[in-house]
Amino acid sequence: MKMKRILLLGGTGDALRIARQLGPEHVYSLAGLGKVPDDLACTVRVGGFGGSEGMARYIVDEGIDLVIDATHPYAAQISANAAQASRAARVPYWALHRPAWQPQAGDDWRMVGDWDELTDALAPFRKPLFTLGREPLAHLYEIPPHQFWVVRCLEAHEDTARARILAARGPFTLEGERALFALQAFDVLVSKNSGGQATEAKLEVARERGLPVVMLRRPELPAAEREFENVADLLDALQVAD
Ligand code: NAP
């Protein structure tokens, strides 16, 4: 299937792999929080559309004939907007939904739905490693007296007396994660269920060390006309090679 003009919504490594296969008529869209690639053949646009109505207008004005959502599984707002905007503009909406990680034998996952449940689940622990993105930065002054937090996220932020902020971007290697966990002696890991390999090593190290994982549940995502579990299948459907 050859599309004249694709709007690819990104912000993930998978989206970047798709973007690398697209020619100049196609558009790769980023929120603008992370790195903006400057070596792509396709057009790169940065920043929000102004909700689903703004995106629908963009789709029509730019003559887009397919929307591909390759955003992160926890970026639920942009996915809801994209599904709605595609419907309104009458173009197909495809989505890349990489499979969630599954607990393995011996894993101790404690599933939580929101920040309140998460802090309740963390109450018995002293030294969590947060790998949820920037959300914990908004709660640095609510850390219980018995806890010291280590927060790993993209944003640089000053340490506080009760928290250490590690600004880092994946992928993370097994060796690197082993070294970090050994050095910091975390007693619990806090994670989203992102799926994929880029950030999976922390789960393996938690397993090796017998650490519980407080796992934030995946949000509901809108249904898409076509859903793909991996980049290769999606590129096949577009008839471009990875
Ligand atoms: P979100 O809550 O779903 O989206 C918030 C707003 O950001 C959207 O309403 C939209 O603004 C804008 N936006 C998001 N993605 C965009 C894109 N690809 N192109 C243009 N505008 C976009 O998203 P989020 O959780 O803040 O994540 C932001 C971006 O980071 C996403 O693109 C996602 O793929 C990436 N990311 C997120 C996570 C995560 O854990 N959430 C992890 C890794 C990467 P308007 O309403 O104004 O259009």
Structure description:
It is built from 7 helices and 12 strands. By secondary structure, the chain is an alpha/beta fold. The chain folds into 2 domains: 6-99 and 219-241, Rossmann fold, CATH 3.40.50; 109-216, Rossmann fold (3-Layer(aba) Sandwich). The strands form 2 sheets. It has a 6-stranded parallel sheet with strand order 3-2-1-4-5-12, sandwiched between helices. Strand 4 (66-69), helix 3 and strand 5 form a beta-alpha-beta unit. The radius of gyration is 19 Å and the shape is elongated. The site of NADP nicotinamide-adenine-dinucleotide phosphate (NAP) has 24 residues, from strand 2, helix 2 and helix 3.
What is the count of β-strands?
12
Low-confidence stretches: none
CATH class of the largest domain: Alpha Beta
What is the total number of structural domains? 2
Biggest sheet features: 6 strands, parallel
Strand residue content: 15-25%
Order of helices and strands: EHEEHEHEEHEEEHEHEEH
Mean pLDDT across all amino acids: 96
Helix content: 25-40%
CATH architectural type of the largest domain: 3-Layer(aba) Sandwich
- Determine Rg (CA atoms, Å): 19 Å
The outline comes out as elongated
Number of helices: 7
GO molecular function: precorrin-6A reductase activity
Pfam families: CbiJ (PF02571)
Pathway: Cofactor biosynthesis; adenosylcobalamin biosynthesis
Organism: Paraburkholderia phytofirmans (strain DSM 17436 / LMG 22146 / PsJN) (Burkholderia phytofirmans)
Write the layout of secondary structure elements.
Blueprint: E1 6-9, H1 13-19, E2 27-30, E3 43-46, H2 51-61, E4 66-69, H3 76-89, E5 93-96, E6 109-112, H4 115-122, E7 128-131, E8 149-153, E9 163-167, H5 174-184, E10 188-192, H6 201-209, E11 213-216, E12 226-228, H7 231-238
Parallel strand pairs: 1-2, 1-4, 2-3, 4-5, 5-12, 6-11, 7-8, 7-10, 8-9, 10-11
Bound molecules: NADP nicotinamide-adenine-dinucleotide phosphate.
